[in-house]
Amino acid sequence: xxxxxxxxxxxxxxxxxxxxxxxxxxxxxxxxxxxxxxxxxxxxxxxxxxxxxxxxxxxxxxxxxxxxxxxxxxxxxxxxxxxxxxxxxxxxxxxxxxxxxxxxxxxxxxxxxxxxxxxxxxxxxxxxxxxxxxxxxxxxxxxxxxxxxxxxxxxxxxxxxxxxxxxxxxxxxxxxxxxxxxxxxxxxxxxxxxxxxxxxxxxxxxxxxxxxxxxxxxxxxxxxxxxxxxxxxxxxxxxxxxxxxxxxxxxxxxxxxxxxxxxxxxxxxxxxxxxxxxxxxxxxxxxxxxxxxxxxxxxxxxxxxxxxxxxxxxxxxxxxxxxxxxxxxxxxxxxxxxxxxxxxxxxxxxxxxxxxxxxxxxxxxxxxxxxxxxxxxxxx
Length: 380
Hints:
By secondary structure, this protein is α+β, with helices and mostly antiparallel strands. 22% of the residues lie in helices and 29% in strands. One of its GO terms (biological process) is SCF-dependent proteasomal ubiquitin-dependent protein catabolic process.
């Protein structure tokens, strides 16, 4: 059996049987069970090591910046026929850890020397170090009292785990040539909660955003948005984008049509969240309505004109809506309807606005509005 270079008495067979084969089931993408916060772990083979990298979004609000990452554990052969698990959490170097594989899609990690996670300055130093790593700033830089409370709550909650976590496998959604944009993982701005990771997937005539990382308002693993792809909104002119009242009126008219058509099809969505099959086709003409004032249907008819493939639409922020990230695209591929019922609890929106607001899809990015707030921007 061939001896590995730079590893005395280490054979290829030992590396395969004691390292690669034994821990093959933990390779890939995982989500840690950290209450509402979640996370994204990528376990990879790196030389003669298996390393678990925790992927972190860039610091808010720089959604276009690359992801950050830090090692949480590593596995390697210290001696023949014996693999060693080391915890990498903290700032005092590798120390003794343990990994238990419960089943194919679940495993857990445990640190056997949690004293290595402590810092000489106590919890205050640990918090300030965590704050610089997590947010790229100090507590003095954060003036919003509510944001300070959210940050402190997250630190207290997440630090109690001491890298003793259970992970569940993440399966990326399949892609199709007809998809508006490639599904997968996106970075998104979530206001006081900072940047979070969302998985975009397509389900028939609907697109869904599921949180990989989360917050107490919408926890990790929960659906944060659903987009109805059957109804594409073609706004009459750019001024409709600038006037939030006009924009809301157009979108709510289309939303009312959707509600009426769902009633005609036999009721709302089924228990699985998918619409029941029906005769509704994309870009269908609005049904005739009694009592409509002259001119009321003009905006609605224009709003439902089909969007030609590759045809860009202007994207302008409405008056009163601002964005901390000024480097956002000024065109989009599609305006559509989004549903986010939990937003009502999180942001206190008007029920109509929370059920049906404007969504834009463009190449490689996903963005939508919330009334009187800055837009959410998602970057893959």
